[in-house]
Write a structure and sequence with these properties.
Strand content: 5-15%
Largest sheet: 4 strands, antiparallel
Low-confidence stretches: none
Strand order of the largest sheet: 2-3-1-4
Order of helices and strands: HEHHEHHHHEHEH
Distance between the termini: 47 Å
Structural class: alpha+beta
Shape: globular
Radius of gyration: 18 Å
Helix content: 10-25%
Length: 237
């Protein structure tokens, strides 16, 4: 069976393309206090987010992506039937599933940096670039989209960058493995590794188990959307 070609212009670049090495990044969490402002925010972000179809070498490694939590969808007043069509794991959130995930003791949600793990996390902006100068330019575009909206508030920010030895906080070398995704045309880091089914990363496409996996409804809400996990890390470990 021929793999379906991915609609790259409808998929965020950060889902399919590897992170640049070295890199600088910023994460910003937004809270939506007004539904109309939140919907306006989504329209504005549609011109800020970089799609995977962008193949220009000068801008390909600098991108902005935007993710919505289940609480964020509720803040946008998505119909109940659509909310119920999302997976239970997404609906429950990471804090509610802490024991199942092994986040206990010093790593339990009460020790997480707020607002992580709370119902205040509605939108997560991720900006990534090979250097701070280009990162700032990407952030300026994203910031303009939300700073003018009174009903949207930035409540958390974290800046990060690769260490000189390119190792992550647990001591492992970072960024050495990036799988090829079937139908994307984007090569993986290991040419001997078979591409993974697109549905393992993007909703609405065949995955490793099924050619017709379930996606949130209506289809326009789920098709092309990635599943994103943002894990709080206890730096005291």
């Amino acid at each position: 069976m021929t793999a379906p070609a991915l609609e790259l212009d409808d998929i965020q670049s950060g889902v399919l393309r590897p992170r640049p090495t070295p890199f600088a990044a910023t994460y910003i969490i937004l809270r939506i206090d007004d539904c109309d402002a939140g919907r306006d925010l989504m329209r504005r972000f549609s011109t800020v987010v970089t799609s995977a179809a962008n193949s220009e070498t000068s801008t390909r490694d600098t991108w902005v992506s935007v993710a919505l939590s289940f609480q964020g969808l509720k803040a946008l007043r998505i119909p109940r039937a659509s909310l119920d069509s999302f997976s239970p794991q997404f609906q429950q959130g990471m804090a509610a599933r802490a024991k199942l995930l092994g986040d206990v003791g010093d790593n339990s949600p009460e020790h997480w940096e707020k607002p992580l793990g709370t119902d205040q996390v509605h939108v997560v902006i991720t900006a990534v670039s090979p250097d701070s100068q280009r990162l700032q330019s990407a952030l300026d575009r994203a910031r303009k989209a939300y700073q003018e909206l009174a009903g949207v508030k930035a409540i958390w920010r974290q800046d990060c960058h690769v260490l000189p030895d390119e190792k992550e906080p647990f001591g492992f070398k970072d960024g050495i493995s990036h799988p090829a995704i079937e139908g994307s045309g984007i090569p993986g880091s290991n040419p001997r590794e078979a591409p993974l089914k697109a549905g393992e990363f993007v909703l609405g496409y065949p995955d490793e188990i099924s050619d017709a996996p379930q996606i949130p409804q209506p289809e326009i809400l789920g098709r092309g959307a990635p599943g994103l996990v943002s894990r709080p890390v206890n730096h005291a470990l």
